Amino acid sequence: MFDALKRRLSRHLLRDPEYAFLFEPPPDEAVSIDCETTGLNVRKDDIVTVAAIKIRGNRILTSETFEAAVKPEAALSPDAIKVHKLREQDIAGGRPMAEVLPELLRFIGSRPLVGFYLEFDVAMLNKHVRRMIGIDLPNPQIEVSGVYYDLKYRGAQPGTRIDLSFVGLMKDLDLPILTQHDAAADALMTAMMHVTLMDRRARGARIPRERAKAIVQYGGG
User: Read out DSSP for 21-45?
Assistant: First the structure.
């Protein structure tokens, strides 16, 4: 009920009617999305690359992808450069987000968004979406680590070791690890996780976890 009311309010507040398509019934598809940024501060940092790939059922549509380099409104931090290896000269040819965003929104449409740490990527995008059309992205969101947690750790005993790292999920799902911290590769790997997890969920198959080791106490005689 709350989500429905929120969508109705967003539709009412939409500043540009050209983007009413964001509220249309989505096709039977989702979009895996990933952003690389100048840093991890949503308020101060900005996007340098963004990539998205469509997913239809259990198929990743590699022929239907979106990728763009963005000229950020913030300087690259040294820590960010260490992570994604993008330097100022590497993104000098990027386009302003004002040019990239309309193309990205038309690519996404009303499809649900799939991501890893998706909340961060969406927050970075929403800074620009809000400025352009007056609202946040209304798309449903699917966090792959949340689905993974539900299939593996739901009901786990207290003290169970939980690994929700990107590499940990890829290895546990027996998926090939591509170049990390590259927006296009990360979007593709996230799409692979999504398809694998949705298949398991549809079959009612949980992800096995290691049995907790029993703690044996020996009393003195």
Answer: GGGSPPPS-EEEEEEEES-S-TTT-
Alpha carbon 112 to its chain centroid, in Å, reads 11
- Identify the helix (H) or strand (E) that includes residue 65: strand 59-69
**Separation between Cα atoms, residue 114 and residue 102, nearest integer Å:** 19
Let me know if domain 26-203 sits in CATH 3.30.420.10: yes
53 pairs with which residues across the strands? 32, 65
pLDDT in tens, 103-159: 999 999 999 999 999 999 999 999 999 999 999 999 999 999 999 999 999 999 988
pLDDT at residue 196 in the model: 98
Q: Is 91:49 a contact under the CB 8 Å cutoff?
A: yes
Which single residue is written with the structure tokens 């966090």?
A: 143
Question: How far is residue 31's CA from residue 114's CA, in Å, rounded to a whole number?
Answer: 6
